Amino acid sequence: MSAIGSLRxxxxxxxxxxxxxxxxxxxxPGETAEPGAALFFEGDPACHVFHLISGxxxxxxxxxxxxxxxxxxxxxxxxxxxxxRSRYMFGAEAIDRVAFRRMNKRLFEEELQLAPEHRSQMLSxxxxxxxxxxxxxxxxxQKNAExxxxxxxxxxxxxxxTPGIVSLPMIRSDIADYLGMTxxxxxxxxxxxxxxxxxLPAEKHHFRVVSRSALARHANEANENDDHKGxxxxxxx
Length: 237
Prior knowledge:
It comes from Rhizobium subbaraonis. By secondary structure, the protein is α+β, with helices and mostly antiparallel strands.
């Protein structure tokens, strides 16, 4: 399947009001990708950098035995395809309907050379990617099934626009591949968290977090603050 053939250019796309690197894409036409379509495949020539306007994308690699390994999930506002190599080291696939803008890699690099502030933002973005990669390796190597799922939910909670709501637009097999678990274990763990009253089903593909501190404890996240810590500190002033 061709990645280019599965995409459609749209005449109007919702404008992006963000500054910095993302502002470079405002002059590019908006495009959309339907669920399951590839923005690019692993091993494709790295010709473009993409800015996601809406929707969700899974980033994945395939092992020599054909097993899929999901590196992460991206959403509106994220950049994907940043690489100094000649070919993409991973593939990017639309989970749901995705709107995005793409920029020629050479033009993107020229813009970085012209604006020092963009270069520093680029380095900051790459540092964030390295940190996320290290966190993911720690997740897979040191945490048990429940801790992995809870850590994943905490991360999704921080990326959801609605307070206390976790959005899970991806299917269970995507979560399982990302966490290095089976689909059955992911489902059992989510059910267990519901029975414990830590999360509750909300609308489709969403959970409501009843207690962030309890979720953090089950994730073995020692640095997470208690739900009421901020309020207690305010009252003590």
